[in-house]
Every structure is written in C-alpha cells, then in structure tokens.
Design a protein that fits this description.
Elements lengths: L2 H9 L24 H8 L3 E7 L5 E7 L3 H7 L1 E3 L1 H4 L11 E5 L5 E2 L7 E10 L2 E2 L4 H14 L3 E15 L5 E3 L13 H6 L1 H13 L4 E6 L5 E6 L2 E2 H21 L3 E3 L15 E7 L2 E2 L14 H12 L1 H8 L5 H5 L17 E2 L7 E5 L2 E4 L8 H18 L19 H9 L2 H7 L6 H17 L4 H7 L4
Parallel strand pairs: 1-6, 16-17
Antiparallel strand pairs: 1-2, 3-4, 4-6, 5-6, 6-7, 8-9, 8-11, 8-12, 8-13, 8-14, 10-11, 14-15, 14-18, 17-18
Length: about 475
Amino acid sequence: MTLEATDLISRRSQSTNGHPHPSTASGTIADQATDLASLARATGTRFILAVFTTLSGKPCAKLVPVESADELQNDGVGFAGYAAGSIGQVPKDPDLVAIPDLSSFTPIPFIRDGLALVHCDPHVEGKPWPFAPRIILEKALAAAAEKGLTVKVGAEIEYFLVQRDEEGTLRTADLLDTSRQPCYDARDVTRMYEHLTSISSAMNTLGWGNYANDHEDGNGQFEQNFRYDEALVTADRVMTLRYLISVLAEQRGMTATFMPKPFADRTGTGMHMHMSLWNGDRAAFPDAGDLRGLGLSDLAYSFIGGILDHASALQGVLAPTVNSYKRTGATATTSGATWSPRRATYGGNDRTHYIRVPDSHRVELRGGDGSTNPYLAIAATVAAGLDGVERGLDPGTPGAGVASDALPMTLLHAMDALAADPVVTAALDAAGPGVAEYFTSLKREEFFQWHNTVTPWEIDNYLTAF
C-alpha cells in the first residue's frame, strides 16, 4: 500500500464528535473512488477477496485478480451456495452471486502484499438472498431508519491463542502463561508483543482506531478493541478482524480460536456489544434528568426492556453453539469468576449483569460469545430493543431480577425459545420467510449430533459404575 493510500484511509476515519464514548466517522477509502478498479489502483491491490458470511459465521471468498475488478463490481462472482455451508441452499439451487459493497473495501497488505477484501451481499437470480446474514442486518437497520434512528455498535473481540501438543491435546501457545490470575499481566502481554502489535498496527493503518490490547482472564486469552461505528461497518470489521487475527496467528505457528469455551477450567470467550441509538447526530440514550440514576432516557430504558424481554430467544443467536452453554453455564474457573451472565438482568457499571450500562451513551450486551455471527446478533438485538421501544417496556429497577430471568441452559433450550419468539424470528425472516426455521433446524441438529456423541466424561463416570 502506498503512503498516500494509507494517509487517505486514516483521514477518512478521524473522530467527528466529542462524546465520551469513542467514535469514528463511517466510510472508507471507497468514498474517494467511483469504482472497484480505481480503489485497487489507489491501494496497490493486485488481488481482491470477495467475501460473504454464512449463517454459521463462516467467511467464504473467491480470490479475484484486479484485472477482473470491473467484472466483479458489475456482475458479482458466483458460488455453489450449498457447498459453502449454512446459507439456505440445496445442491440443485442456482448459483449464489456475491455482489461487492464498495464501502467495505479493505486493503490488507499485512496478510499478503497487494491483497484486499470486500464484503459482499449474496444474490440469487438477481435478488438479495434472504438467508444471507449481511442482508438480514441491512433490513434491521432499514427498519430502525424508518423510525428516524441510526444504530451504532462497538464490539469486544476476545480469543485464545493455542497449539496442540504431540498427543493432540490443546494447550496455551505461550507455555509460560500459567499464572492463576493472568488478566492484564504485563509479562504475558509482552511475550505476545509481535502478534498483538501486528493486529493493532493493521487496525490503525485501516483507521479503525485500535485503542487497547490486553490479556484477558484465561491463560492464553486476549482482547483487542476498535472504536465503535455504524452497525454494518462494525459487523464487517468484526468479520475482517477475525480473519486477520486467525491468519496472522497461523503465520506464527499458533491457532487463534474464538470458540466460546475451549478450556473447562478457564473463563470463556465473549463478544460483548456496546450499542447506542442516534437521531441524526444526536445521541438518543442520555438524559441528565434520569431518576433511576443511570443518566438514560425513556427510550433507552424501553430499548433495554425489549432486549431483556426477548433475552432467551436472543441467546439462540448470541450464543449459537453447543459449546456456548459451557460458557454461560460455568460455575467456577481457575481465576475465580466466569464473567458470563446467567440471568437476564441489567444494572449500572456492573459486569455481573446481562446488560451493563457503563455510561449514559451506551448499553453493553454481555450475552454474546466468540461464535456469534455479528450480522445476526446485531439484527436480532435491534429488533428486540425496538420492540421494547414500540411497546414502551419498563425494565424495572436497575439491579433487580427474579428467578424467571434465567437464560437457556443449552442450545436446545435456546432454539425452543427462539422458535417461540415472533419478534426474533421476524428479524431473521426480515429479507424473506423460512430463515428462522432453517436456522433453528440446523442448530437443533447440531445439538443432537453432540448429544449422540459418547464423551470421555461418560466413559470416566459410567464405564465401571454399574
């Protein structure tokens, strides 16, 4: 990438407001060019990854040479959708054609010199494909826009760096990372300096505003953050960052895993989302006259109320794997805390709640984990929150809760809750019918595949017990 192109990216991402919650302007270098070929020339790009995301969160791509940039922009690039995975197709279906969104064009020379990626919206026979998560989110944001609201989101990206030993057993990549309470340990961070700084430099080169990189609560666990932005921008960046982290870790002989609970005795991996609503340039959440003491408006409380009211169904989207419920169901870890919510409650700057309110500008939803599909998670949460706004729901007193606030115990419980919730199912079906049914069917099958597997725990407990 040329110095001029790097400078252009940085200029497009400068902060545009003085709110205490960090913010960057939406938009990328794409706003400076009229076509994909010009973008490629401006950034020294020779190959473009045309990327779309399945319902399971798998990034799929074709590598397109810059000589075909015009064809990619005008005609898209075709995929056999069934082969890609959970995208709502069977083998006989027509090609899924990925149409690039130029505003998401991202040069990634830190992976390979001359490489860029662009996020795409899948189409089938000329129409947006309703099973595509990015299109589902676009529908949710359009619904918010009809109410005069813009959704902004920040995401905390947590992951473990691991390797396998000679017997295939999973272990921490850094063999010296063994302390009982490793969170924020300066020595552990320093040993992973090359990896962490390569990710940080990549984000800042792109103008994302990486502002912190730390060791999390589990041995081998890290978190890297970037400034919040409009919801679709953030969702694209989550997918891009997972890709960057995975590939750069692999180049250093490590595996970066976003699996919610790779180690039974350590804290799990979350993906907390910080969400806010805006009326144009005005934040809609703050209210200095709030009698409940959190500095929030009635709209903000109703938004919280909607999320809490639909929390059990939301968990089917926020925690979409069997392994997710090893995280939310954990009772003890080596460090002494699990940091994952078990009940649908809210409160102030208190990390034991499902929804934390760090300040008057945002709410933090703590139910999501590393397997969360960011497009689906934001879409479903926005729908739940806006339902609360429409109904004027009151979430009650901060910090209060009852036993019925318990979140689903397993993926199967979560799918039952999702299927029974008309608001969350409607969010998944926003671009066309059948998506929610397809998603819940896939996830129930996933649960029963796990359930039908004989595990070492069963052998240890039952082999000679009778």
